[in-house]
Amino acid sequence: MLVVSTLIIFSCQILIFKTQPEWVSIPGLGPGRIHNQESTTDVPPSSRGIPLIGETIQFMAAINYSSKGFYDFVQTRRLRYGNCFKTNIFGETHVFFSSIETAKVILRNDAGKFTKRYLSSIAQLVGDQSLLCASSPDHHKLIRGRLNNLFTTKSLSLFIKQFDELIISTLGGWEHHRGGTVVVLKEALKITFKAMCKMLMSLESGEEVEMMEKDVAEVCKAMLAFPLKLPWTRFYKGLQARKRIMETLEKIITLRRRGLEGCNEDFLQYLVQEDNRGFGDETLKLTDTEIKDNILTMIIAGQDTTASAITWMVKYLGENPEILDAVEREQQKLAEKTSTRTSFNLTLQDLNDMPYASKVVKESLRMASVVAWFPRLVLQDCEIEGYKIKKGWNVNIVAKSIHFDPMVYNDPNKFNPSRFDEHDSKPYSFLAFGMGERTCLGLNMAKAMMLVFLHRLITTYKWKVVDSDSSIEKRAMFSRLKSGCPIHVTRLPSPKDVKSA
């Protein structure tokens, strides 16, 4: 079986990589043993694995079989080598770092020595014109500048109202699900997908939306799949799903450009109108391919990562009743205030009046570390932590290792929102949304979605976590609970009901 796997991987290297990778002949695969550890003091410590393949098998095994996912691969080597180690994955050299000092150097990128780069499989699935894959500083600046409009205060305020209405209508039926038991991840994925489609393209229902939801799920499943383009593989199925999504988006964009789809006030319409108005410089326009790739990117980022974070938040609160009680007191007080208003919907100001819930969100993001690492490509030879790092290597900041470093966070395995009472937290110690020039554009939107969900859940139901298993869903790009966090809900009386009683 190992021989077959090796042959498949070797074949894949030839298909994927155009440059011949560096390698040394090192026998053995055991992740618990050191094989030919490099003794040169000016290069990071490493075990390169076997020729061409390196430690790809161990990396994929962690993703496919470990309850901790990708982090298991990193943590095993971190315990062996320390905060910095070098390895070979998919035929390329990767160096992993787990210190806030190095995170600052790489993510701030003041000297311009690094650029963003994801694994080949991810780039092929989201598209090479995606903001995630824009390696050129000018290209990245162009796309980021055009996408910024989605995250203005005005846009965020409108989105909060829409998302709140969606949450209210969805949560209303939870008590009737299988005797009051719902799987949070499953429901959160539906809610966040609908929210993103409405905001981006004014799509709310119909066969087209249902098909796109299934296809986006296929793309997400394929992100860390081995990049073999064979019909039965997850990667091939993901590529086919991407193709269908692109075709759907192409139809919508064509109709919008021809003015045949009515008057829509959404993000896609903004992009199309800006291009149709015309810029003096054609290079400032986004091509249809750039628009499509970034619409898909925003759907995935807004749906998958946020739904995963919401699920972890519900789990952590369910396991910490004292913290849940504190959040309930804050949210019930806010609910009483909003119940007297003409408009019942939450506003941006309401979210600003949730100081403790905001700390709960931040602590949930720290512990969940939904995006576990941030990859960069080295553009020129440099030195980091006393080690020589070569041009063409991949450097990775392991956010989860930093989030659970006892030198950074006291008692890091404890869910403690009050740790953020202090305002002098160490720079680059909280990396849920990255840092530096490529900080996640949607960080305020993600926080808003989590706060709205939390408020409506707490003021609508009492709940109890049914399955406390913390195992990570296998093969997932983002850290998702394998169980999905099933909870049993019991409806609460509304503030108006309490007053009239």
Automatic annotation (TrEMBL):
The keyword Zinc-finger does not apply. Pathway: Secondary metabolite biosynthesis; terpenoid biosynthesis. Keywords: Heme, Iron, Membrane, Metal-binding, Monooxygenase, Oxidoreductase, Signal, Transmembrane, Transmembrane helix. It is a single-pass membrane protein. Residues 1-21 form the signal peptide. Pfam families: p450. The keyword ATP-binding does not apply. It comes from the Eukaryota. It is found in: Membrane. PANTHER family: CYTOCHROME P450 26, CYTOCHROME P450, FAMILY 722, SUBFAMILY A, POLYPEPTIDE 1. Belongs to the cytochrome P450 family. This is Cytochrome P450. It comes from Xanthoceras sorbifolium.
